[in-house]
Specification:
The chain is mainly alpha-helical and 82 residues long. The chain folds into 2 domains: 1-44; 46-82. The chain has 3 helices and no strands. The protein has helices at residues 2-9, 17-44, 46-81. The longest helix is centred in the last third of the chain and has 36 residues, at 46-81.
């Protein structure tokens, strides 16, 4: 996805044939990956999909806690290096 966004932000006038080929390959991989994910979720069933979604929601506070803890650890290591 990030590669596609960068490719679209890139000036089209200076895009080479290699850049266009790489863009199409990245787009095709993204489309197939999205289709596979949707089919997998449908095939797993609604109960399994709901449990997976709930698991993601339960993990969000842990992610936020780790992200808040990280800048404090970085500033402490920066202070030691000075």
């Amino acid at each position: 996805m990030a590669e596609l966004l960068l490719a679209f932000r890139h000036d089209g006038a200076t895009r080479t044939a290699e850049d266009r080929r790489r863009l199409w390959i990245a787009a095709a991989i993204g489309i197939f990956a999205f289709a596979f994910a949707v089919i997998s979720i449908i095939g797993a069933g609604p109960e399994t999909a709901l449990r997976g979604f709930i698991g993601l929601l339960i993990g969000l506070p842990v992610y936020v806690w780790l992200q808040r803890k990280q800048p404090a650890a970085q500033s402490a290591s920066d202070a030691k290096s000075d």
